[in-house]
């Protein structure tokens, strides 16, 4: 997906059991409530034997959300509990630009849960 504006609608990507290279570029999330929000939900199979196709992110702009209010910028699920890593490069919520993305991720930044891992460089 390139050049997408998401206004108060959760973006859901479900690979339906077939890993694929995915690109999210120039995606903007806005208009969400300030509590109980999940903006992006990605589900797909991991692979412990060989690298799975890449999920690439560049210039992802999330509406700023407060921590401790049931909010998530992104939720990542590995459907088979094998390795599925998503690197959130180029986001306005990166810790490199004082964003709180690492706090509002499921699983939390740099933590692997049932194969899923989100990294906010």
Give the assembly state of these chains: single chain
Number of strands: 10
Helix content: under 10%
SSE sequence, one letter per element: EEEEEEEEEE
The proportion of strand residues reads 35-45%
Largest sheet: 4 strands, parallel
**If you compute it from the alpha carbons, what radius of gyration comes out, rounded to the nearest whole angstrom?**
13 Å
Count of DSSP H/I helices? 0
Number of domains: 1
Distance between the termini: 21 Å
Shape: globular
Based on secondary structure, the structural category is mainly beta
Low-confidence region ranges: none
Give the overall average pLDDT: 94
Q: What order do the strands of the largest sheet run in, or round the barrel if closed?
A: 2-4-6-8
């Amino acid at each position: 997906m390139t050049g997408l504006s998401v206004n108060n609608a959760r973006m859901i990507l479900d690979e339906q059991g077939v890993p694929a290279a995915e690109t999210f570029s120039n995606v903007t999330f806005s208009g969400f409530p300030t509590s109980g929000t999940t903006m992006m939900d990605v589900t797909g199979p991991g692979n412990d034997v060989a690298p799975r196709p890449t999920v690439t992110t560049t210039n992802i702009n999330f509406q700023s959300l407060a921590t401790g209010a049931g909010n998530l910028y992104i939720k990542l699920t590995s459907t088979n509990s094998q390795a599925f890593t998503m690197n959130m490069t180029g986001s306005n919520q990166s810790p490199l630009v004082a964003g709180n993305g690492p706090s509002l991720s499921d699983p939390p930044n740099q933590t692997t849960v049932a194969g899923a891992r989100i990294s906010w460089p």
